[in-house]
Input
Amino acid sequence: MLEQFTFVGFLLVVALFLGIFLISLSWLLRPKRPSPRKSEIYECGLRPHGEPWVRFKAQYYIFALVFLIFDVEAVFLFPWALAYNWLPFYAVLEGVIFILLLGAALVYVWRKGALEWM
Amino acid sequence: MTLQQILFFIFGAISLGAGVGVVTARKLFHAALWLLLAFFGVAGLYVLLEAPFFAAAQLFVYMGAIGILIIFAIMLTRGMMRQRHPRANRQWWLAGILAALFLATFVRLAWQGPWTAPAGPVPENSLGLLGLTLVDPGGFALPFEVASVLLVVALIGAVTIVRER
Output
C-alpha cells in the first residue's frame, strides 16, 4: 500500500523543494534597490486604488457552498460507482435517487438565480 | 524505527504544529491557512492507515471545499481581514479548563484500551465493499439517502439566508 504512495511522496518533496528553490534563487540573484513605487501592490500594471483587504460579496459564499455540497456528493457516489458491477438493481436505483435529489437542488439554486455572476 | 513510523511522526507533527498555529495566529486569515495545513497532515495519516480514499476525500472536501468556505467566510466579514485580534478574550480561562479536561479524557482513554490490530490485512477493493454496504438495506442505505436530503437542505437554507439580505 505504502509503496504505491512512494511516487506521491516523491512528487510532494519535489514540489516543496522546487518552490523553496525558485523563490530563494530569485531572492539571491535579484538586485535589491526598493523604492516606494516598486513596493506597491502589483495589480496587472494598473495603479492600485483602495485597500487590498476589501470585503467580498456574500454571493461568493453561495458558490463555495454549492462547490462543497457537490464535492461531498462526489465522495458518496465514488464508492457506489466502484461497486456498480456487483450491485442489484434496487441499489443502482438508490444511487440514482441520490443523484436526482441533488440534481433538483441544483435546478433550485439555478432557478433562484444564485448562480448568476455579479 | 521503520519508515512508516518516521512518516507517522512527520505527519503528526505537521498536524499538531499547524493546530498550534491556528490558535496562536494573530490574523484570522493566517489561522485559516494554518488550518489547511493541519488538514493536510491528517490526510497523510489516512494514507498511513491504508485508507487512500479517505485521504483523497480529506484533500478534496476539507482542504478544497471547506478551506475555501472558511476563507470566503473570513473575506466576507467586515473588518475581519484588517484587524489584528488579541489572541485571548475574557473566556480564555474557561476554554483552558475545558481543553485540559478534553486532553485528560483522551489521554486516559489512550492509556486504557488494549490496542489490538484488527484481524487480517485490509481487504482488496475495500472501497467497492464500502460502496456495497452504503446501498445495502441492511447496511447504510437509509443514512445514504438521508445524506442527500441533508445536502439539499443545506443548499436551500444557504440560498434563503443570502437572498434575504
Q: What stands out?
A: Chain A has one domain: 3-111.
